[in-house]
Recover the amino acids of this structure.
């Protein structure tokens, strides 16, 4: 077998679990989106109503996409295409960096490049694997549309649009890996470019013009031409099928991949276009103990989450008033039903309040992911061996683990506070009544107990079965988020929903808010957390694996 | 003389696998103690128990007379440790990592630390401005070595500290350790590099499969093995050669007579050798390598004589432990 074939198989084998996980996640998101749309907006008149509301709220168009009529598949395409594009884009860039700069950094590339495979064939194998992954993912999207009754040609075009975005970002990822010296840097740059493409397209969508005809189509503004996601969107497969914008993405991918191959064929191993800057030669004042160390390790991710929370909060704030001002009563009932199910079981109330509570449930999920990262970092430090160095100094186990818990708690509080403040700012700017401010503050605080319970549970997993921390920790967390916040949408029985701490988050609507569950959860978090810390002091350090 | 480290009958099980099976080790105050054994013999596990990172399944362990599991942090105030496989924080530079470890250990005098650190960075020819992931194995080891040697300690624990260093840097390491010993510190040095152990160590413990098989000063251990004696064979009477008292494995080959003798029997042989004339006489004391190989070799022959069935049973046990 040729070198290319061997390397391609090796890459597919190495990624088999990861790619299947991406594929399942992608399919699940698409399916959830589809079932939510068909169950909530089954009637074309409802969809027309929603589109009219969205056209008045550009901030939603930034998040979602431009309306392309009331046809059910077109409606879904508007709601989901940009999200799915980001997912495919990230999958492709991570894949590209993992097998190029990642392997180079780990020293594996040196081993492979010393064989007849040489410098260029491994990169080529990565590109081929990436195209296969992107095409399979897009086909799953197309098949999904076909299964739910869409026209086959249109469904395939929707898939091709997605594939063009994936191929474009695959090329971008390959090029980023040549530009940056570390896989961390390359992943960061590539992910930032994916996010930029999403935002640039969003600005184009928000500044689009409503078509004169039925008023239910929007043509995006010119900035959306700057984004591969914008190109994909302009194929408008279910309203006005146009193939050629998809070719732009494929061309960009090919161009970037070609540039990456050209750079790799002339550069030294370990070299990069942007060389890594030498860092400081001695430690600053903040790096003086375990807390300083953990903060340093989690700083980048935490700042990222804070920015996300700020943007999301701003959106929630400005939207809450727009909803109130625009929607007529029939739509309010429909929307109220949906957000009410996210907010909690049997929750009824004012649409704006419901909306705020539902959106803060999502911010709570973001905060929980942030806090889980802190504990999982503790496990990674233990497995990687740097914890051994710290624990061989006068730092006790207690002080060591508390550093992760303290930084984790602080970042949760910061994420919730930033989200609340930016939501307040957004609501005030949009001229919302002062009652919304109270709901925002209360909804934000109400998220904390459930998040802390999740932190304690992940810590317990870390204390009891350290080697399973990463997989089991993420699994339990995502399950809890899913059951707690979306269980209602899927009609899960109450008995199941009550397993998740997120189901017990106080609902801060109405004059008499019941906070007792919050206090109970705080107590549970303290007990589980305390027990975990004690258990952790009694076990061996579990190195490796 | 008091013992800084006192281990007797130490046992450690990981699931069904026995890593340490009654290990004994004593490090006296002020001595450099070599800790030798093949891969997987249990050296790193022993060190991790000494540091309170793992808990002993059985046996007695004290460090400075205290229990390393319950009093870990207090004991660590007096210890400097260099792991066998140094893993750094990917987003910290080498210089930051050195300062972090030193601060965690507790910097007494800042200017003394700064001067000592600058000296070590210089003689180890270390670039402290690179990020952790960019360092080679040897350079990562230098981070831990500089952090260990930059502050005084009562006990230095080195787990194969020079396995990634070049011979020049090995020499620097020896010189710095010798310097650190001047104020009465003790050293536990696990190593594969036998010349390093011979240069630095006062006493040696050799372990195999989780047990101590040999312990003592290098001189004592040499007594346990045979010295090799050889001289020119021209004109030697085979009958007289056969009558040399205490000679083992005698053979005549390539113009030389060679045999071995118990090291403490050598003085008694000198008269006979003088009578024989023994031209070009060489008397070679056993090297540590031979000592080590003798035990290691037993291990290899054991494994070779084991049946395949036995081998597969071991694998099962190991799998069960995961």
């Amino acid at each position: 077998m040729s070198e290319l074939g061997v390397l391609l198989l090796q890459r597919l084998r190495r990624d088999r679990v990861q790619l299947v996980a991406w594929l399942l996640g992608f399919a699940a998101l698409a399916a959830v989106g589809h079932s939510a749309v068909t169950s909530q907006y089954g009637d074309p008149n409802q969809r027309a109503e929603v589109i009219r509301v969205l056209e008045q709220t550009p901030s939603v168009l930034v998040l979602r996409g431009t309306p392309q009529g009331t046809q059910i598949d077109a409606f879904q395409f508007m709601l989901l295409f940009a999200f799915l594009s980001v997912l495919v884009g990230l999958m492709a860039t991570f894949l590209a960096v993992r097998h190029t700069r990642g392997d180079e950094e780990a020293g594996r590339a040196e081993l492979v490049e010393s064989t007849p495979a040489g410098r260029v064939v491994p990169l080529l194998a990565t590109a081929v694997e990436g195209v296969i992954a992107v095409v399979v993912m897009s086909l799953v999207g197309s098949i999904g549309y076909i299964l739910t009754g869409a026209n086959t040609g249109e469904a395939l075009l929707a898939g091709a649009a997605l594939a063009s975005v994936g191929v474009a970002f695959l090329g971008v990822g390959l090029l980023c890996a040549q530009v940056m010296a570390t896989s961390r840097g390359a992943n960061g740059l590539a992910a930032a470019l994916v996010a930029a493409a999403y935002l640039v397209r969003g600005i184009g969508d928000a500044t689009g013009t409503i078509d004169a005809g039925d008023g239910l189509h929007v043509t995006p503004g010119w900035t959306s031409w700057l984004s591969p996601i914008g190109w994909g969107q302009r194929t408008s497969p279910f309203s006005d099928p146009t193939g050629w914008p998809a070719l732009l993405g494929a061309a960009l991918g090919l161009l970037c991949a070609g540039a990456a191959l050209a750079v790799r064929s002339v550069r030294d191993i370990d070299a990069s276009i942007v060389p890594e800057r030498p860092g400081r030669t001695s430690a600053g004042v903040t790096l003086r103990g375990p807390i300083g160390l953990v903060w340093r390790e989690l700083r980048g991710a935490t700042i990222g989450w804070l920015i996300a929370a700020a943007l999301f909060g701003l959106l929630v704030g400005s939207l809450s008033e727009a909803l109130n001002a625009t929607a007529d009563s029939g739509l309010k009932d429909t929307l109220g039903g949906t957000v009410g199910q996210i907010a909690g079981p049997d929750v009824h109330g004012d649409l704006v309040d419901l909306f705020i509570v539902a959106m803060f449930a999502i911010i709570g999920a973001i905060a929980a992911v942030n806090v889980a990262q802190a504990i999982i970092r503790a496990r990674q430090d233990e497995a990687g061996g740097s914890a051994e160095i710290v624990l061989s100094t006068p730092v006790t186990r207690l002080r060591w683990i508390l550093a992760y818990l303290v930084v984790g708690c602080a970042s949760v509080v910061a994420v919730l506070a930033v989200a609340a403040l930016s939501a307040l700012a957004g609501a005030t700017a949009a001229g919302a009544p002062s009652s919304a401010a109270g709901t925002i503050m209360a909804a934000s605080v109400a998220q904390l107990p459930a998040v802390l319970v999740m932190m304690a549970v992940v810590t317990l997993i870390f204390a009891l079965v350290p080697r399973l921390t990463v997989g089991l920790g993420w699994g339990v967390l995502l399950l809890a988020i899913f059951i707690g916040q979306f269980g209602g949408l899927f009609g899960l029985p109450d008995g199941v929903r009550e397993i998740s701490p997120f189901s017990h988050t106080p609902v801060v609507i109405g004059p008499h808010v019941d906070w007792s569950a919050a206090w109970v959860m705080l107590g549970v978090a303290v007990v589980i957390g305390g027990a975990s810390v004690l258990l952790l002091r009694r076990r061996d350090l579990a190195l490796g694996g | 003389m008091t013992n800084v480290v006192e281990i007797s009958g130490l046992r450690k099980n990981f699931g069904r696998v026995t890593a340490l099976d009654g290990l004994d080790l004593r490090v006296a105050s002020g001595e450099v103690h070599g800790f030798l054994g093949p891969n997987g013999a249990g050296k790193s596990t022993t060190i991790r128990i000494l540091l309170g990172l793992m808990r002993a399944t059985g046996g007695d362990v004290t460090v400075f007379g205290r229990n390393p599991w319950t009093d870990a942090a207090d004991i660590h105030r007096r210890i400097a440790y260099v792991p066998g496989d140094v893993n750094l924080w990917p987003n910290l530079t080498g210089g930051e990592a050195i300062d972090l470890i030193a601060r965690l250990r507790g910097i007494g005098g800042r200017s003394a630390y700064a001067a000592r650190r600058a000296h070590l960075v210089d003689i180890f020819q270390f670039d402290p401005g690179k990020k952790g992931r960019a360092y080679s194995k040897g350079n990562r080891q230098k981070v831990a070595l500089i952090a260990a040697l930059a502050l005084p300690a009562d006990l230095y624990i080195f787990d194969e500290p020079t396995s990634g260093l070049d011979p020049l840097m090995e020499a620097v390491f020896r010189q710095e350790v010798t310097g650190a010993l001047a104020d009465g510190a003790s050293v536990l040095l696990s190593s594969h590099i036998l010349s390093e152990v011979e240069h630095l160590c006062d006493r040696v413990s050799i372990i195999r499969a989780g047990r101590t098989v040999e312990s003592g000063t290098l001189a004592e251990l040499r007594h346990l093995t045979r010295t090799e004696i050889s001289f020119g064979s021209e004109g030697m009477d085979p009958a007289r050669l056969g009558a040399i008292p205490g000679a083992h494995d005698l053979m005549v080959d390539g113009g030389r007579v060679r045999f071995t003798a118990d090291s403490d029997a050598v003085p008694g042989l000198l008269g006979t050798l003088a009578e024989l004339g023994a031209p070009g006489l060489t008397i070679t004391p056993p090297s540590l390598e031979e000592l080590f190989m003798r035990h290691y070799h037993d291990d290899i022959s054991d494994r070779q004589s084991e049946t395949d069935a036995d081998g597969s049973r071991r694998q099962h046990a190991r799998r069960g432990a995961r």
Q: What stands out?
A: Strands of chain A lie at 209-210, 218-219. Residues 333 and 388 of chain A are 57 Å apart (CA to CA). Chain A has a mean pLDDT of 87. Chain A touches chain B at residues 105, 182, 184, 276, 278-284, 287-290, 293, 296-297, 300, 381, 384-386, 388-397, 399, 538-541, 545 (CB under 8 Å).
